[in-house]
Design brief:
The chain has 454 residues and is mainly α. It is built from 17 helices and seven strands.
C-alpha cells in the first residue's frame, strides 16, 4: 500500500507534467538545425499553423521517409522533403516558395492559381523588404505592421485577391498564424461589374467569324461567341470525347464533366447545346484535325505559322495571338473573351428562364436545392439541351440575323420593322404603330403621285 504522502507527491508531479505538456513550445535549436522535415500533405489538417511539423525535443517523428526533391505538381499523397525555415535567421524567398508549393500541392492543383498567389506574396516581400526580418520577428507585431502598411499599395480592384494570396503563402509557406484581423483594414469597395460589350461590336465579330476561311479559327470563335466559355479554364481543355453526338451522328452539344477536367475553374459540368451553324463549323474543323481521337484536344496548341502540337493544350498566349490576328485581319474593334462571355450571359438571362440550364450553359455551379429542378426533364445532358433549344432555337448567334438581299418586292421599310420585331427591338404595340405609320405614309405618297401624274 502506497503512503498518502507519496500519493500526494505523485499527484502533484503528474499535475505539473500535464501543465507543462499543455503549454505551447517554441521549436528547439536542435530541431531547427535538423536536416529537414518529411511530411505527407494528406495527413495535415486544413488551416495548419505554426508548429504543426515541429518535433518536441527528446521525441522522434513517427513518420519518416526517404529524401526526395519537392514535387509541386504532385497530388500530395506522397511523402515530400521540405527544408525547415530558420526561426532566427533573415528570411529568404526560395525556401518559402519551396515550402508553399509542397504544402499546397494537394489542394491547389492548378499551377496558375499557385503562381498567382506566389506573385502576390513576392510583391509584398519586395515592397516591405521582409528579408530584413526573421521568422520570429514576423510572428510578432512586426508581421502585422508590415501587412497593414502594404495594404494601401495594392491596387483597389486586386485587393481582395492579392490579400488572399499573401495570406495563403503566409500560413502555408511561412507557417505563421495570420496576424491581421478584419478590423485592422478598411472595408474594400464593392466590386463593379463589367458591362457587356455593345451589341453592334459583337455583331461585327460574329459576321467576320461566319466569313472566316480558317476552320480552326472559325470553329473556336463561333463556339466562343455562342457559348461564352472561358478560353483557358474551359474551352482550351475540351477534348473530342466532350462533344456529344446524336443518333444520326449529328453534333448536338458539349458535355464536359468537371470530374474529368481538374483544370476547370469551377467544379461544375458544361452542358451546352450547339446550333446547326456552330455544329457545322466544328465538324468542318474536326474533319481537318490531324489526330481526331477521343482524348485529343479539340483545339490543340497552334504556332503562329499554323503548325499544330496535338499533345499540347492551347495557352493564353496562343489564344490571344490568334484572336488579335483575326481582329486585325477583319478590322474589328478589340473584344476580349471575357467580354464575349458577358454578352452571352446577358442573352441567356433574357431568354432562358431556367436558372439551372443557364448555369450548365456556361459551366457555373447550378443550384440543385430545388428538387423539381434537380429531377426535371433536364437531368440528363440531352434534356438540358432540349430546354436550351426551346428558348434559343438558333443559339445565342441567332440574335444576329443574316442580312440577305430581297428580290420579292417587299419594301425595305417593312423588312426593317420585321427584323426589329425578331430581334426584340420592337414589341407588338410598337410594331403595330410602326406599321400604321408606314401604311399612312404609303397612302399619302400614292395620293401625291396621283395628283402629279400627267
Amino acid at each position: 500500500m502506497i503512503p498518502s504522502i507519496e500519493v500526494s507527491r505523485l499527484a502533484k508531479v503528474s499535475h505539473l507534467e500535464r501543465e507543462e505538456s499543455d503549454a505551447p513550445k517554441e521549436p528547439t535549436e536542435a530541431v531547427q538545425r535538423s536536416e529537414g522535415i518529411i511530411i505527407a500533405d494528406t495527413h495535415l489538417p486544413l488551416g495548419t499553423q505554426e508548429g504543426d511539423n515541429w518535433v518536441p525535443e527528446g521525441h522522434h517523428a513517427t513518420h519518416q521517409g526517404s529524401e526526395g526533391a519537392p514535387n509541386p505538381g504532385g497530388t500530395g499523397g506522397e511523402a515530400q522533403h521540405v527544408e525547415p525555415i530558420p526561426w532566427d535567421e533573415p528570411l529568404r524567398l526560395d525556401p518559402i516558395k519551396q515550402r508553399f508549393e509542397v504544402m499546397t500541392a494537394a489542394r491547389l492543383t492548378r499551377n496558375k492559381t499557385r503562381a498567382s498567389y506566389w506573385a502576390c506574396f513576392e510583391t509584398f516581400a519586395e515592397c516591405e523588404k521582409i528579408a530584413r526580418f526573421s521568422r520570429r520577428q514576423l510572428a510578432g507585431k512586426k508581421g502585422r505592421e508590415l501587412l497593414i502598411a502594404h495594404y494601401p499599395h495594392i491596387g483597389e480592384p486586386m485587393r481582395v485577391f492579392a490579400l488572399a494570396g499573401v495570406k495563403k503563402v503566409w500560413t502555408r509557406g511561412l507557417e505563421l498564424p495570420w496576424p491581421v484581423c478584419r478590423d485592422d483594414l478598411p472595408a474594400p469597395r464593392r466590386s463593379r461589374r463589367e458591362a457587356a460589350p455593345r451589341r453592334e461590336f459583337v455583331e461585327q465579330w460574329v459576321n467576320a467569324s461566319r466569313s472566316e476561311t480558317d476552320p480552326y479559327v472559325k470553329s473556336w470563335l463561333l463556339v466562343e461567341e455562342n457559348g461564352g466559355l472561358r478560353p483557358i479554364d474551359q474551352a482550351a481543355e475540351l477534348r473530342i470525347e466532350d462533344l456529344l453526338f446524336g443518333a444520326n451522328d449529328d453534333l448536338i452539344g458539349i458535355h464536359a464533366r468537371a470530374a474529368d477536367h481538374p483544370g476547370f475553374k469551377r467544379d461544375a459540368d458544361i452542358r451546352q447545346s450547339l446550333p446547326p451553324e456552330v455544329a457545322l463549323a466544328l465538324r468542318s474543323w474536326l474533319a481537318a484535325h490531324p489526330s481526331p481521337g477521343p482524348g485529343a484536344y479539340v483545339w490543340p496548341w497552334r504556332h503562329r505559322t499554323g503548325r499544330l502540337d496535338v499533345g499540347r493544350m492551347a495557352t493564353e498566349e496562343s489564344i490571344r495571338r490568334m484572336r488579335k490576328a483575326f481582329a486585325r485581319r477583319h478590322g474589328l474593334p478589340w473584344l476580349t473573351s471575357k467580354a464575349m462571355r458577358h454578352f452571352v450571359r446577358t442573352v441567356l438571362n433574357s431568354s432562358v428562364r431556367d436558372k439551372v440550364v443557364r448555369s450548365y450553359y456556361q459551366g457555373h455551379t447550378p443550384d440543385l436545392s430545388d428538387m423539381d429542378e434537380r429531377y426535371g426533364d433536364h437531368e440528363t445532358p440531352e434534356g438540358t439541351f432540349e430546354v436550351q433549344r426551346r428558348s434559343l432555337l438558333a443559339g445565342v448567334l441567332g440574335t444576329f440575323l443574316r442580312t440577305e438581299p430581297e428580290h420579292d418586292g417587299t419594301p425595305a421599310e417593312l423588312r426593317d420593322i420585321w427584323n426589329k420585331v425578331l430581334t426584340g427591338d420592337l414589341d407588338s404595340l410598337e410594331a403595330a404603330s410602326a406599321l400604321k405609320d408606314l401604311a399612312r405614309s404609303v397612302k399619302q405618297q400614292e395620293a401625291v403621285n396621283a395628283l402629279v401624274k400627267p
